[in-house]
Amino acid sequence: MKNVYSLIRNIVTNVDGFNINDVLQTDWDMLIEILCSQPEKKEKAISLEEFMNSVG
Predict the structure, then answer these.
(1) Which residues of the chain have pLDDT under 70?
(2) Per-domain residue ranges for the chain?
(3) pLDDT tens for residues 34-43?
(4) Euclidean distance between CA atoms 12 and 56, whole angstroms
């Protein structure tokens, strides 16, 4: 049981967007699928000048 608590603590502290309620409300198979999936690529940040040029 100690390993389960350790896993939950690691998820809540290291996975962005997960809180304790999310972990407890997610079934085991879905939780493992989420943890094993590749993180989404974040879009590159652009400068304010590039943004202004893109909108007109």
Answers:
(1) 38-41
(2) 1-36
(3) 778 866 667 7
(4) 42
pLDDT at 17 (0 to 100): 79
Q: What is the C-alpha radius of gyration for the chain, rounded to an integer number of angstroms?
A: 18
Predicted pLDDT at 56 = 72
Pair of tokens at residue 42: 């974040």
AA identity, residue 9: R
User: Where is 15: in which H helix or E strand?
Assistant: none
Q: Are 26 and 33 in contact (CB under 8 A)?
A: no
Q: What is the dihedral of CA 21, 31, 18, 16, to 10 degrees?
A: 170
The amino acid that residue 38 corresponds to is Q
Type of residue at 27: D
